[in-house]
Amino acid sequence: MKLKNYALGEWFTSSNTGKVVNHAITGLPIAEVESNGLDFSEMLHYSRTQGNRALQALTFHQRAKLLKSLGVYLLEQKELFYTCSIGTGTTRKDAWIDIEGGIGTLFSYASQALNSLTDGHILLDGKQEALSKQGSFVGQHIYSSITGVAVHINAYNFPVWGMLEKLAPSIIAGVPVIVKPATQTAFLTELVAQHIVASGILPKGAFQLICGSLGNMLEHTTYQDVVSFTGSAQTGQMLKANHNIVSESTRFMMEADSLNCAILGEDVAADSADFNLYIREICNEMTTKAGQKCTAIRRAIVPQDKLEAVIDAIKLRLGKVVIGHPENPSVTMGALAGLEQRADVLANIERLSESAEVVYGTTDLDSFNVLDGDANRGAFLAPVLMVNQDSGSDLSKQTAHDIEAFGPVCTLFSYSNTEHALALAARGKGSLAGSIVTSNYDLAQQLCLGAAAHHGRLLLLNESCSSESTGHGMVLPQLIHGGPGRAGGSEELGGLRAVKHYMQRTALQGNPEMLAAILTNTK
Ligand code: NAP
User: Could you tell me which residue ranges the Aldehyde dehydrogenase domain spans (predicted)?
Assistant: First the structure.
């Protein structure tokens, strides 16, 4: 099946031969992906002239109601999406994060906008600033919507959520989107896109879709556009350096890979409730979506005297994982998104092996059980736990601080004291999410303040919040998703802050009555 592109208000199928994508479980061809024949510059123009104008004629509340209606519409089709999602390798539980998590983001942004924004077009930023003695000259910061388009380049691991979590704040800001899903799982994104278009809810020009190459689109963006990239640091850095992006100062947001860590506090006794929580988080992060989460724990940092106990407990828990076809109800872990992705993970395990030893799991495809599936056809992989041998200051002996095996893989490091634990955490050079498991408030403070500068989000976990905790890897629309350094240096979500990524902040100066009249007229 050749995937369609949605451009200039019409569905378009390229006549060129495209890249064939295979089903993650069966290995059989599932889609052909090609965008050749699209006029990428014309697509930008169409979004700017049709979509931008149509959306910005609406108020924040009217845009919020569109998102809400779209969420309701998509939710009614969800079973189609779940069925299609099997081709990406996911169990139903994992697909829930992608499909209903994505749709939930539409609802979240709709209600945040309805509850917290005025029913107008401009956002006030802070209070009026007094700039004169007599009070005839004041200042006020405002946000107004940019006049361009949001180009969303997404990763393969969340084909639905990845599209919707970026679409929601863009639409609230009144900025149309052009979505470019990753080729490997574009068939699921395209299915959801078909329903977005069929719903007729978004105005003409507010939504376009490119399945395949982005062509020369980045050569035509301007300072009024936003490019929001999610994917590997390597691709992101290459695109960010595009000469047109640089010379136009096109806004470029980057959510890249991240060597997230979880620190076990020195106070936590083996076999205590907090210890078991730590083990649960590590194993969940290794197996949910077969470890293909940008927030997944890649580095587990544990006190030296607990290392053996942690290894034993993780082994015990991973031993209960059932790998196989997601349609079999006993299966708890599906496959990776495709064979190319698995080959990447296997190559990275090999590289990690230069400084770490595999203590659980195998890379031999014939030596683990696959229920109702075949590891030589589907992209199945057993969870692999590694232990870094040398946690000292020689970084050449710690490849797990640099290499992201984007699959069910985690590396253990042992530490001698709190300072050492923090130094190990910081060697990830900037992460999306980190976890600290402790019930000692002083220790929590030291670890938290030492790790915060290196993380976009920190989970402080112990028994007191565990029953309601959303877990280490779960990204929530209300909280920041992003991180410094290697993680890309940008932020997504975080409530209505994300809407401002698609708006311009301007300082207005003048007479207070004049400013009041302007802001009243724009509500
Ligand atoms: P990737 O290979 O870097 O690709 C990401 C996106 O960039 C895909 O849509 C890809 O399209 C596109 N792309 C590649 N080359 C391009 C070019 N020259 N011009 C325009 N677009 C181009 O990453 P991936 O393999 O899809 O995803 C896995 C990575 O994403 C992991 O490293 C993971 O950590 C990271 N990730 C990060 C986050 C986050 O929020 N920080 C979330 C999810 C995943 P094609 O597929 O068509 O090549």
Answer: 14-446
Q: What is the pLDDT of residue 519?
A: 86
Is the CB–ligand 1 distance for residue 153 below 6 Å? Answer: yes
Query: CB 161: neighbour CB atoms within 10 A?
Result: 20
Task: Supply the range of the domain harboring residue 193.
Answer: 5-119+146-256
pLDDT band at residue 128 under the 50/70/90 scheme: very high
Q: Output the CA angle 480-485-311, nearest 5 degrees.
A: 80
* Amino acid, single-letter form, for residue 248: E
Same domain, 298 and 378: yes
Rounded to whole angstroms, the Cα distance separating 404 from 381 reads 16
pLDDT at 393: 72
Nearest CA to ligand 1 atom 11: 182
User: What's the number of domains the chain is made of?
Assistant: 2
What angle in degrees, to the nearest 10, is found between the helix axes of 161-173 and 60-76?
160
Give the residue, out of 14, 88, 153, 210, with the most ligand 1 atoms within 8 A of its beta carbon, to mutate for a pocket test.
Answer: 153
Say which residue the tokens 């057993």 belong to.
Answer: 382
Please indicate, yes or no, whether residues 169 and 266 belong to a single structural domain of this protein: no
